[in-house]
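Appendix B. Chain record.
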Amino acid sequence: DFMFNDNRTSYRKSVSTFDFTTLYTSIPHDELKMNLHKFVERIFEIKGKKFINCNLFNKNAFFTDSDGNSKSYVKFTKESLIESIDYLIDNAYISYKGNVFRQTIGIPMGTNAGPHLANIYLHQYEHEYFLSLYVKGSVEELSKLQFVFRFQDDLIAFNDDGLLQKSLNSIYPPSMIVNNTNTSCDKTNFLDLTISIFKNKFQYTLYDKRHDYSFDVISLPYLDGNVPKGQAYGIFISQLVRYAKNNCNSNVFLKNVKSLVDKLINQHFDIAALRKRFKVFLENHLDLWGKFGTTISPNEVFQEIL
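Structure tokens predicted for this chain:
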């Protein structure tokens, strides 16, 4: 949505991406705990409540002043939540060949809390840096950095005139090594997008890292097995939604769909059923593919795909 809307302006376009090379394995525990403490204290101050209640059976949680007890919830004060986080960080153990080791730097990858701990760790540094710019009245810098986004250990900056790269050492500690990942000054891959700039307009298409491999990657269901057919065909529509969102023109969108249909047919999907669901997609998601500025007829398009 940002790139689509920004293309309507005449401002000079730029895009830069960055990656934290060893995020999970390099976080010092003292810095991690310090940032988590600051974050918890700030959130409790914002909410103005004494407790946070966490449901044992789902992901629901809410702040409250009530001191009541419930078998469905675990209650934390600010202090007890900080104590629990410290315990989690200090008690990560692994066993190897009969020996037990405690992790003293970094956080275990693959654990439920791991991504959240890493995300909050980085967020706290970002919050403090942007707050310092605000306090100093650095309006120009804040304006240039307003279109910076981060997903876990991947950063992207739009139209920042190179300011983010110059500011990285001021935002993050020396233990965090951040590298630029642009393929050229006007082109980069970010998550599942390839983003480039042509004639001062953002061009974006679907990027699938698996296509870079020299071997085929098995993906999507095979209908000659015991996979429920309803859910399997639902995957087709979900992929159409993703393709429409991640492409800025109809030609690349249709190319991606043709590749998907060919793959699904080879995995024993029914052509007529795929055609029917493609029509359902077009009828229900005009808000997604209408941006292409072309009329798409289900029969003509599906015939072209096949």
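Further analysis of this model is presented in Appendix C.
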